[in-house]
Specification:
By secondary structure, the protein is of the alpha+beta class. It is built from 16 helices and 16 strands. The protein has helices spanning 56-68, 170-186, 226-245, 291-299, 305-316, 320-327, 331-342, 347-365, 371-376, 379-391, 396-409, 413-419, 428-441, 443-450, 457-467, 474-485; strands at residues 7-17, 72-73, 76-77, 79-83, 93-97, 103-108, 121-130, 134-136, 148-150, 157-163, 199-208, 218-223, 253-258, 263-269, 279-280, 287-288. It has a 9-stranded mixed sheet. A 3-stranded antiparallel sheet has the order 5-4-15, with no helix packed on it. The protein has a two-stranded antiparallel ribbon with strand order 3-16. α5 packs across α6, α6 (320-327) packs across α7 (331-342) and α13 (428-441) crosses α16. The longest helix has 20 residues, at 226-245. The mean pLDDT is 93. The structure holds zinc ion.
C-alpha cells in the first residue's frame, strides 16, 4: 500500500462509556434515548456551588477494564480539570485525569489471539472522565438558524484507553478496536453500541522512513465503525506520504473522516496539552483504590475472549477459525457448545451442529442469544440427540427433523424418536433377514454381482431399504449386504 519505503505509525485513543446506571458525579440516569434534558441536575449541568461525588461502580468498571488489558492500577490517582469552551460543556471544563491516571502500562501481547499482529500493542494509560453533552444541529423548524443542546449525556462515565503508537497497519488498528469492543462487552463494562456512541475511537497517524524519528502526526476524530477506522487510516497514510513526497511538511492537526468522499479533511490545528490548562480538580479528593479492592475485582474477572478461544482450541482440538466463530459474534453459542460437550457430546460433532443447524436456526428466528433456543433445547438435550446418531438409532438427516421437533415442542430426542417410531432398524438378524429375502427375489442380479458386476451394489441397498421402509441403519445394511453377496 505504501508506494515507497515509508512506514505508518498509528496510535489509538478509545472512549468507552461505562455501563453504570447513573452518571459519574451525580445520581442522574445514563439511559439512552430519553427526552432532551430530562436526565440532568445541578451537578451535571454545572450550576455554581454544585459538588461532584464520584460513582463507586464507575471506578470498579474502570479497574476491571484496566486489569483485562494488563494494566497496573494505581492505588492513588487524581482527577483534573481540562479547561476548554464548547456549548455542550456547561462547566467550561471537563473533569478528567491527567498526570496521575487510574491505570498505566498494559499490553496485548503479540499473537495472543487470532487477530493479533506479530508485535505487542502497549497500552499507555487508562483514565476516567465525564462525557460532554450533545449539540443538535438538525430536526427543528429553526435548525437553519439555531442549534440546540441536550445535556442528558453530560456527566456520563467514560474511560479513555490510550495505546502507544505501536500499530504499523490500518487493519491491525481496526482489528484491535474490534477486539477491544468484544473484550469490554465480555467483561460487562460497555454495551459495545457504536451507533449510540458508547464506544468511539480517535486515531493518531504519522509516517516515517523505518528507523527515523517519529513524523508529525494528524489525529482523526470520531471513527465510530471498524470500516471507517481502517479506511480513514489508510487514506490518511496515503495523504501524508503524498505530502512528504511532494517535498512538503505534514501539519499537526485534527482531521475528520469524510466517508462519502473517502478522505480525511482538516478540522482544526491540533491543540497541545498546555492549551487545556489542566489542574487538579479541587472539588474531588485523590482517588484511592486499595490493593484488596483491585484483587477482589481481579478474582471476579470472567474469562477473557482471547483466553477462552485458546482454551477451546487446546481442550477440544478446534481450529482457530472455529473457536473464533463460537466465541465472537454470539458468545452464548460458545457457552452452549461447551455445555453440550460437558453433557457428553463429541466436541467435533457438537461444533458442527452448533455452527451449522443451530446457528442457521438462530438466524431464521433472529436470535442474538441462545437463551430462547436453550429453553426448548437445553445443551444436554442436544448432547442426547447427538448420542442417538452416534449409536445409529437415527440417521444424521433424521436428526435434523428431530431437532426441529425438539425446538417446536421442547421434548427430548428420545421421547420424539419413540413417539414417532423413528428409531432405525439396527438389529443384525432383522436386517440379515431382509437381505436374504432380497437376494432370493433377484437371483439374476446376484449372479451378475458375483460374476464381477459390483456396480449393482446400490440396487441391492435400495431394495433392502425399501423393504425396511427406510428405517434400516444404512451403515449396517452396507456392511451386512457386502458380507452376504460376497459369501
Ligand atoms: Zn446530574
Amino acid at each position: 500500500m505504501l508506494g515507497s519505503d515509508f512506514e505508518a505509525v498509528i496510535g489509538l485513543e478509545i472512549h468507552a462509556q461505562l455501563l453504570t446506571a447513573s452518571k459519574i458525579f451525580c445520581g442522574c440516569s445514563t439511559a439512552f434515548g430519553a427526552g432532551p434534558n430530562t436526565h440532568i441536575c445541578p451537578v451535571c449541568i454545572g450550576l455554581p456551588g454544585a459538588l461532584p461525588v464520584l460513582n463507586r461502580a464507575a471506578v470498579d468498571y474502570a479497574i476491571r477494564a484496566a486489569l483485562a488489558l494488563g494494566c497496573t492500577v494505581q492505588e492513588r490517582s487524581i482527577f483534573a480539570r481540562k479547561n476548554y469552551f464548547y456549548p455542550d460543556l456547561p462547566k467550561g471544563y471537563q473533569i478528567s485525569q491527567y498526570e496521575l491516571p487510574l491505570a498505566t502500562g498494559g499490553v496485548v501481547a503479540a499473537k495472543s489471539d487470532y487477530w493479533a499482529p506479530n508485535y505487542d500493542i502497549r497500552i499507555t494509560r487508562i483514565h476516567m472522565e465525564e462525557d460532554a453533552g450533545k449539540l443538535l444541529h438538525e430536526g427543528f423548524p429553526d435548525s437553519d438558524r439555531r442549534s440546540y443542546v441536550d445535556l442528558n449525556r453530560a456527566g456520563t462515565p467514560l474511560i479513555e484507553i490510550v495505546t502507544e503508537p505501536d500499530f504499523r497497519h490500518a487493519r491491525h488498528a481496526a482489528a484491535f478496536f474490534g477486539y477491544l469492543r468484544e473484550l469490554l462487552v465480555a467483561i460487562g463494562v460497555n454495551d459495545g453500541n457504536m451507533e449510540e456512541g458508547s464506544l468511539r475511537c480517535d486515531a493518531n497517524v504519522s509516517v516515517r522512513k523505518p528507523g527515523a524519528p517519529l513524523g508529525t502526526k494528524a489525529e482523526i476524530k470520531n471513527l465510530n465503525s471498524f470500516r471507517f477506522l481502517e479506511d480513514a487510516i489508510e487514506h490518511e497514510i496515503a495523504r501524508q506520504v503524498e505530502v512528504l513526497e511532494a517535498g512538503e511538511r505534514v501539519v499537526q492537526e485534527t482531521r475528520l473522516w469524510d466517508s462519502g468522499a473517502k478522505r480525511t479533511v482538516s478540522m482544526r490545528s491540533k491543540e497541545e496539552a498546555h492549551d487545556y490548562r489542566y489542574f487538579p480538580e479541587p472539588d474531588l479528593p485523590p482517588l484511592l483504590v486499595s490493593a484488596a479492592r483491585i484483587d477482589a475485582i481481579r478474582v471476579a474477572m470472567p474469562e477473557l475472549p482471547a483466553v477462552w478461544r485458546r482454551r477451546l482450541v487446546d481442550a477440544h482440538q478446534l481450529t482457530t477459525a472455529d473457536a473464533s466463530m463460537l466465541t465472537q459474534v454470539r458468545p452464548s453459542l460458545g457457552r452452549y457448545f461447551e455445555d453440550a460437550v460437558r453433557a457428553g457430546a463429541d466436541a467435533k460433532t457438537a461444533k458442527n451442529w452448533v455452527l451449522g443447524l443451530i446457528s442457521a436456526t438462530m438466524n431464521d428466528l433472529g436470535l442474538d442469544e441462545t437463551g430462547p433456543l436453550a429453553e426448548k433445547v437445553p445443551a444436554a438435550n442436544l448432547a442426547a440427540l447427538l448420542a442417538l446418531i452416534d449409536k445409529g438409532t437415527i440417521s444424521g438427516s433424521m436428526a435434523k427433523d428431530v431437532f426441529e421437533t425438539m425446538y417446536a415442542s421442547g421434548q427430548t430426542a428420545d421421547a420424539i424418536v419413540a413417539a414417532e417410531g423413528l428409531a432405525q432398524i439396527d438389529d443384525e438378524s432383522q436386517i440379515a433377514g431382509l437381505i436374504a429375502d432380497v437376494l432370493v427375489a433377484h437371483p439374476d442380479a446376484v449372479a451378475q454381482y458375483r460374476g464381477g458386476k459390483t456396480s449393482t451394489f446400490g440396487f441391492f441397498v435400495g431394495k433392502v431399504m425399501k423393504a425396511a421402509a427406510g428405517k434400516a441403519n444404512p451403515r449396517r445394511v452396507n456392511e451386512l449386504l457386502k458380507r452376504a453377496l460376497e459369501a
